[in-house]
């Protein structure tokens, strides 16, 4: 599949089949993630891959957090984590200054996109989870995120139980201003 079709066909999937993911395929997708663009080659992304007991603990922590602070409808993290074959916590390494930190945050987001696209290309899928998971001290301890680092995402990954239909996007003409002189 070409890149354009891969990008357009990818979906956020929140329901997974009870099948394991091949570890080598997860490693390939992490490798794709580290090829994301990053200013000054800072390579600010860090990853923790969770499976088995660690994944079950993360799902339980998410359930506890959501019991205290209910998420918006359709935005829960506990459900996808309970069904996922694996989860990847992604954080941004502490930057030396605010300017580098801002650029690094964008690079980490690009790495997450690469990972999700690679997963889709492998035939499995994921969803990008956030909310209270990202700031909870117990989650940070579980994934072993260093104190000054910024947890940016938790990805629930697995074989899709169902693929949601394409949802319409705004037209490009509504979102784009061309400043392009034809000379």
CATH superfamily: NADH Oxidase
Taking pLDDT < 50 over at least 5 consecutive residues as the criterion, the unreliable ranges are none
Main β-sheet description: 4 strands, antiparallel
Q: Which bin fits the share of residues in helices?
A: 40-55%
CATH architecture grouping: 3-Layer(aba) Sandwich
Spatial order of the strands in the main sheet?
A: 1-2-4-3
Number of strands: 4
Count, helices? 7
Number of discrete domains: 1
Query: How far is the N terminus from the C terminus?
Result: 36 Å
List its traits.
183 residues, alpha+beta, 4-stranded antiparallel β-sheet, 7 helices
Description of the molecule:
This protein has a single domain (3-175), classed as 3-Layer(aba) Sandwich (NADH Oxidase). It is 42% helix and 15% strand. It has helices at residues 3-9, 23-33, 52-68, 78-83, 98-122, 137-143, 172-175, and strands at 45-50, 86-92, 125-129, 150-158. Helix 2 runs antiparallel to helix 5 (98-122). The N and C termini lie far apart (36 Å).
């Amino acid at each position: 599949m070409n890149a354009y079709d891969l990008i357009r066909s990818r979906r956020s999937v929140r329901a997974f089949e009870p099948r394991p993911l091949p570890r080598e395929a997860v490693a390939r997708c992490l490798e794709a993630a580290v090829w994301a663009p990053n200013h000054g080659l800072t390579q600010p992304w860090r990853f923790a891959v969770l499976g088995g007991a660690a994944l079950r603990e993360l799902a339980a922590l998410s359930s506890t957090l959501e019991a205290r602070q209910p998420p918006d409808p359709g935005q829960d993290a506990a459900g996808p984590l309970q069904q996922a074959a694996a989860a990847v916590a992604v954080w941004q390494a502490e930057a030396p200054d605010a300017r580098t930190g801002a650029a690094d945050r964008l690079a980490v987001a690009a790495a997450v996109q690469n990972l999700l696209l690679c997963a889709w290309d492998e035939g499995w899928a994921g969803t990008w989870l956030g909310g209270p998971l990202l700031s909870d001290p117990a989650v940070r301890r579980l994934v072993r995120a260093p104190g000054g680092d910024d947890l940016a995402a938790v990805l629930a990954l697995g074989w899709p139980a169902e693929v949601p239909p394409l949802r319409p996007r705004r037209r490009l003409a509504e979102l784009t201003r061309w400043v392009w002189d034809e000379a």
